[in-house]
Amino acid sequence: MQYVEITCQISDTLKGNEIMIALLADMGCDSFVxxxxxxxxxxPKKDFSPAMLDELQNTASAFxxxxxxxxxxxxxxxxxxxxxxSYSPVLIxxxxxxxxxxxxxxxxxKYEILIEPKMSFGTAHHPTTAQLISYLLQEDCERKRILDMxxxxxxxxxxxxxxxxxxxxxxxxxxxxxxxxxxxxxCNGLKDIIEVIHGDASSVKNAPFDMILxxxxxxxxxxxxxxxxxxxxxxxxxxxxxxxxHPDLDLLTAEAAKYHMGLLSYKKEKDWVAAKLQKK
Length: 280
Description:
- The chain is of the alpha/beta class.
- 32% of the residues lie in helices and 33% in strands.
- The longest helix is centred in the N-terminal third of the chain and has 15 residues, at 13-27.
- The radius of gyration is 19 Å and the shape is globular.
């Protein structure tokens, strides 16, 4: 099959790579390779037209980074092999090792998580996911009931289960992410603990929860704050990530305060923030 290669040169790859991958996936691209200046994506030639890039450029202009788009026909390749070259395992705080099946096993780590990342998000390469993993490593999850909103690959849900959670509900509105999460939960032998749902905040069930993890974006977090508050036990912990320090953190904490949830702490890496709140 003939493919078109779309090159996205991104002014801020830390902010822009995951966003552009999501937009490109929605456009029909089925393979991605991150490089030093951005992302290369691949779409079957029969499914591509140059007008699609005009629409993509318009959509990307809403974000606070710049994107230069180019495209070209390419010869057939083993796209999975090309992608694997650019994907590396991740070690968080010396305790949690996230790897794909094609990576070697690492000895002497407390938690090893096997992820078949595909096109889903949340493989711990992005600061927002890494920050929540770091927070979660400090938590006592034993016999806790935990909700993972915007679960992506399921990496947070899997770590919570490995740390002793009695029940984890993982929800994502992207069908590819949902399927990938189901696969990863099975690969890690946790299907009896983690329930995976394809849906959004309206799909939350089996509340209340001791802890909620929501790694999404500012607008969705603001929109669904009341859902998190209603689903959280008194004294329960809410972790939020997927947003920037200014002005997002103030906006989110102000919204959370309406539902008697207060900020305990936050982590910052570059412009990305993860926050820990508690329901009073």
